[in-house]
Amino acid sequence: MITKSFLVAAALTLVSGADGYAQAIDGAKAGTATETVLYSFTGRTGDQPTAGVARDKAGNLYGATYFGGTSGQGVVFEVAADGTESTLYNFTGGSDGGEPLYGGVIVDKNGNVYGTAQIGGADNYGVVYKVATDGTETVLYSFTDGSDGAYPSSTLVSDKTGNLYGTASDGGANGNGTVFELATNGTFTTLHSFDNSDGNHPIGSLARDKSGNLYGSTLEGGGSGCSGYGCGTVFEVAANGTFTLLHSFAGGSDGANPFNGVIVDKSGNLYGTAEEGGADNKGVVFEVAAGGTESIVHSFTGGGDGEYPIGGLIFGKKHTLYGTTLQGGSGSSGYGTVFQIAKTGTETVLYTFTGTSDGGYPYGGVVLDKKTGNLYGTTQQGGTDSYGTVFELKP
User: Fold this and answer.
1) Considering Cα of 364, then 300, then 32, then 332, what sign does the dihedral take?
2) Would you say 169 and 175 are in contact if contact means Cβ atoms under 8 Å apart?
3) Cα 183 vs. chain centroid, distance in angstroms?
4) C-alpha–C-alpha distance, residues 114 and 95, integer Å
5) d(CA 158, CA 149)
6) How many CA atoms lie within 13 A of 38 on its CB side?
7) For residues 181 and 81, what is the distance between their CA atoms, to the nearest angstrom?
8) CA distance 36 to 21
9) Please, which residues have CB within 8 angstroms of residue 38's CB and are 6 or more apart in sequence?
10) Helices (H), ranges, 15-126
11) Contact 355, 1 (CB under 8 A)
12) What is the strand order of the sheet 389-394 is part of?
């Protein structure tokens, strides 16, 4: 289970100096996009959104915060297309779940919201939940820390019939986490239990192709590097249940500790981010080809291009990739970036956060409005009251 102290440490100990927000730079930010803060959390309405947002066809945004709300255990929220924010559900940390971490939400065509919370439930090992349009929360599954897993922290993915797929960061047959399916009739199936040699601690989201194959990453495992824990893996769980280890990170120029899963293109190539490793040990964007060969798309320098990419990637037009870095950026602000990478491999920083009213430390990735090219996401900190933001970037 990831704690609040871990999140704060991850964000703050990597920054030079100890002045926190005092280091932020007001004024113009380097980049090619204009940022608008759609909503600043107040603590009571949420605190520390550590995942991105989901967007429906009407332009409404949905997400979850790690803490905050009436019980301090996190909330599910909506920011409507007109900018109005609504708290859809306040977690209590009890049987309903609590502390939804890196797991964002998905929304069905009827407006129901689905996600994971890393604690709470019948045995306090986390839940898969549904929040209906009237605000009613239903626990669809409570983890037991048995063969099913424990502490789910990923965003779910669904198929056409409504079955849900995700990862649990711990538990399973070997205690290293699981990949699971939750059918519409409530049947839970463990699709794979990691044993560290093939991965450990899957906290990122899954990608699913048209054939029903699932792809993902683990934060650790897969080898002897990175202090003996392994530097992480990329894997496939085929539609027939066969598990394949596609790549095991070595912790050097190939990257280390992929945090937030992968995306898959029409040819079966996978793209993702690794928090560390690369030429300057500031993280990478990588590709794992359909045959399993890994290559580096971009290696972050820790300068204006950003550092420590934790959020996942999305595709834009012409195979453009969009993502975020937790820190780095232009000047000395160091509060993270939103970037794009063209098909040619050229990286462009669209926006650098300052850690003030515009937000800071984007843990989650972004979503794209394909009609306008606008991007939407969250920052863990910053905003009017320093509890985090929901933002829009216009090209």
Assistant:
1) positive
2) no
3) 23
4) 16
5) 19
6) 26
7) 32
8) 19
9) 61, 79, 83, 376, 389, 390, 391, 392
10) none
11) no
12) 34-40, 389-394, 375-379, 367-368
Contacts of residue 9, defined as CB under 8 A and 6 or more positions apart, other chains included, come to none
Q: Report the chain's C-alpha Rg in angstroms.
A: 19
Tokens read off for 193: 């239990």
Whole-angstrom distance, CA of residue 100 vs CA of residue 115? 8
Task: From 228, 201, 1, select the one nearest 93 (Cα to Cα).
Answer: 1
DSSP readout, 234-273? EEEE-TTS-EEEEEE--SSTT-EEEEEEEEE-TTS-EEEE
Cα separation of the two ends of the chain: 37
pLDDT in tens, the chain (395 residues): 765 434 434 443 333 222 222 222 223 345 779 999 999 999 999 999 999 999 999 999 999 999 999 999 999 999 999 989 999 999 999 999 999 999 899 999 999 999 999 999 999 999 999 999 999 999 999 999 999 999 999 999 999 999 999 999 999 999 999 999 999 999 999 999 999 999 999 999 999 999 999 999 999 999 878 877 899 999 999 999 999 999 999 999 999 999 999 999 999 999 999 999 999 999 999 999 988 899 999 999 999 999 999 999 999 999 999 999 999 998 767 899 999 999 999 999 999 999 999 999 999 999 999 999 999 999 999 999 999 999 999 98
Question: Rounded to two decimals, what is the model's pTM?
Answer: 0.92
- 246 contacts 223 by C-beta, under 8 angstroms: no
Phi, psi (rounded to 5 degrees) for 394: -105, 130
Would you give the DSSP letter of residue 20? G
